[in-house]
Amino acid sequence: MTESLGSRPDQQDDAAEQPSPRQPRNGPATVSQIVRSERPDLETAPRIVVTGGAGFLGSWLCDAALDKGYRVVCFDNFATGTNDNIDLLADRPGFEFFEGDVCAGLQVGGPVDIVFHLASPASPPQYLRLPVETLKVGSVGTLNALELARGKKARFLLASTSEVYGDPLEHPQRETYFGNVNPVGPRAVYDEAKRFAEALTVAYRTKYGVDTAIARIFNTFGPRMLGDDGRVVPTFLTQALTNSPLTVFGDGSQTRSICYVTDTIAGLLALAESEIHGPVNIGNPTELTVLQLAERIKEITGSRSSISFVGLPIDDPKVRCPDITLARTELGWEPQVSVDEGLKLAAEWLESTLDLD
Ligand SMILES: NC(=O)c1ccc[n+]([C@@H]2O[C@H](COP(=O)([O-])OP(=O)(O)OC[C@H]3O[C@@H](n4cnc5c(N)ncnc54)[C@H](O)[C@@H]3O)[C@@H](O)[C@H]2O)c1
Known about the structure:
Blueprint: H1 31-37, E1 47-51, H2 56-67, E2 71-76, H3 83-90, E3 95-99, E4 114-117, H4 124-129, H5 131-152, E5 155-161, H6 188-208, E6 212-217, E7 220-221, H7 232-241, E8 246-249, E9 255-257, E10 259-260, H8 261-272, E11 280-282, E12 287-289, H9 290-301, E13 307-310, H10 325-331, H11 339-353
Parallel strand pairs: 1-2, 1-4, 2-3, 4-5, 5-6, 6-11, 7-10, 8-13
Antiparallel strand pairs: 9-12
Helix pairs in contact: 2-3, 2-8, 5-6, 7-9, 7-11, 9-11
Bound molecules: nicotinamide-adenine-dinucleotide (NAD).
Nicotinamide-adenine-dinucleotide binds at residues 51-52, 54-58, 75-81, 101-103, 118-122, 126, 137, 141, 159, 161, 217, 219-220.
């Protein structure tokens, strides 16, 4: 956000329409009680809404935004998120949680300065398990989140994805590349939902003047990713930590670029606080083959695992690497955490959650 440290003057305080917050497991106080009794300064702090805040990226975003002095209103229906992530946030002053499906509508009382729309299954096993829900949250859910931003005159940030590039024919991928997506393949439920969400976001800017931004997030990893999430880093880490074979798809020559979570979150906040509309790639341009990644994870964890090769999923991208020139020049943002450093942190966290006896 460029200008305000307080609420925007054009916002009405319509607290009457605010639904009742769910009682967080570890934090019985509501945000209004906390604001009044402990942190009076929070009453004027800028306020953001995070959909999908019980998920991996969403919970990190809520944490980082609270650290920066924002008040945070989080929405989630736990389709793929966890109560543990909310429990980590529940006691923090300025945090408020509502359980609900963004496709059913999004009503928030009081001022809102930024809407971050992250709600969506994101890992392939999850969006393949929830194909219709994924398309719905990308379309109806995005519409509702945009309507909230429009009504509150808030900035809107869409968490889009590098998957809009599909199996790319341009490498590395710049924001100007239109992508190569199979609209009827299994991955389409996610890829096309995000492509639709991007188009809708642009339409709300051109038709209604909503101040929008689109972040195209590349593969992000780190603590709080569940071992059975299904994405490549937690899968390899779990396999390595349990000395099970690392399952590499195909011959492992396909490439991936993985970004540590705190870097991605810093990128999302930098974009939200800028006046840039995007799309902007947010990712780490260090490119590794999947086989190199497996070997590096074996080394970092000191694992005795072997590597086994399994069939390549349909439409699996052969290459993936962001061109982050735009983020570097327009946002002054680039990743700070090396891949090895990030993998060590993620491995330590995952190890602490696994029963390795
Ligand atoms: N993590 C990545 O590498 C990555 C890469 C590109 C894009 N993204 C995008 O970032 C966002 C967050 O991804 P993540 O990795 O944290 O995934 P995640 O699955 O951990 O989090 C998504 C959250 O959205 C919630 N959700 C899903 N449908 C909902 C609905 N209808 N109503 C309310 N809440 C709903 C889930 O319960 C979950 O808490 C997603 O939009 C994803 O597409 C993530």
